[in-house]
Design brief:
Layout (H helix, E strand, L loop, with lengths): L2 H4 L4 E5 L12 H13 L3 E6 L11 H17 L3 E6 L4 H11 L6 E4 L12 H12 L6 E5 L9 H8 L4 E6 L4 H14 L4 E4 L5 H7 L3 E3 L7 H12 L3 H18 L7 H11 L17 H25 L2
Parallel strand pairs: 1-2, 1-8, 2-3, 3-4, 4-5, 5-6, 6-7
Helix pairs in contact: 2-3, 5-6, 6-7, 8-9, 8-10, 9-10, 10-12, 11-12
Length: 319
């Protein structure tokens, strides 16, 4: 795979929410609207379906296929990359899912680590073998996912071994551990590997570019995506001070959306998107409980104030 192919997997990627109607059924009309809006934004490299923010863990396989089709069509309409997230529990399941996705409007697959990866002390050999078997069975580009749970973490050596495999194009590093992120970036650079690092660390997005990231894959970008795209452009241009300044201005938005309980961040994002007319309802699926009306009212009030404030400050910083 040539370098220009890897370049497709740089920039800002938005893990799009999955809208539901009041009964909790898929709202594909709203999904199409929000996906096309996100894909149309200058600076957005691609959209990601069925990730955690997209509530992929509570969707059935038939529902996921409808989401993949809808979001793939939206991405294609704007010439953007569509990455489909999957959460297989076995090598056989992973290969079967990916082969099905090969026939759909999907450009890459992001794989959530199987539960077995966190079952006691699992060495790198098992994890590498999992990806070896996958890349030998399919030519689909693969995105690794470092989730913020220590038991699941890929250590830097294992990451480099997987990155050396064909078709492994990018890595969402969302450990929320700056030391692990720094060492991973250092080792990958030292090894001369082409796999692109996409930061998923909302708390240090701006700093991530200085450390080695060439893009971001962050749920926070569902809200104020134009501003996150501006931060990404600054970071990839090597304007690290500007990226850090933009991060500082956007931090209150992140704190608002990802307040405890963090599991309800999806509900808060959906409340904002509904208020902006991008989705018809802000329904989330259990076991998520959603947010109370009082919190929704306060959230939208504070969001509007913060958005106006950041718009003004970001204008002063310059885009």
């Amino acid at each position: 795979m040539h370098d220009y192919m890897f370049a497709k997997y740089e920039g800002l990627f938005i893990p799009t929410v999955t809208p539901f109607d009041p009964r909790g059924e898929l709202d594909l009309k709203s999904l199409d609207r929000v996906a096309r809006y996100q894909a149309s934004i200058p600076g957005v490299a691609g959209i990601v379906s069925c990730a955690r923010i997209g509530e992929g863990t509570v969707l059935g396989l038939d529902e996921k296929m409808k989401v993949y089709e809808t979001m793939g069509a939206a991405a294609r309409a704007h010439g953007k990359v569509h990455t489909a997230a999957i959460a297989p529990q076995s090598t056989r399941e992973a290969i079967g899912l990916i082969r099905a996705l090969e026939t759909m409007p999907v450009d890459a697959v992001m794989i959530f680590p199987p539960l077995l990866f966190a079952w006691g002390k699992v060495g790198g050999d098992l994890k590498v073998r999992f990806y070896e078997d996958i890349v030998n069975a399919t030519a689909m580009p693969i995105t690794l996912f470092q989730i913020p749970v220590a038991n699941y973490w890929y250590d830097p050596d294992t990451i480099c071994r997987i990155a050396a495999l064909k078709h492994v194009v990018s890595f969402k590093e969302a450990s929320f551990n700056v030391e692990l992120f720094t060492e991973t970036c250092r080792r990958l650079k030292q090894s001369g590997l082409e796999m692109r690092i996409l930061t998923g660390n909302d708390r240090f997005v701006g700093k991530s570019y200085e450390l080695g990231a060439v893009g971001a894959l962050i749920g926070m970008a569902n809200v104020a995506p134009d501003q996150w795209a501006a931060l990404d452009r600054a970071g990839r241009a090597g304007q690290f001070d500007r990226a850090l300044a933009l991060q500082h201005e956007l931090a209150p938005l992140s704190d608002l959306i990802f307040a405890e309980p963090i599991v309800e961040a999806v509900a808060r994002i959906k409340a904002v998107l509904k208020n902006e007319g991008l989705i018809a309802h802000d329904t989330v699926r259990p076991p998520q409980m959603g947010i109370a009306e009082a919190e929704r009212t306060e959230l939208l009030k504070r969001y509007a104030a913060l958005r106006a404030k950041t718009n003004a400050k970001l204008g002063a910083v310059g885009d």
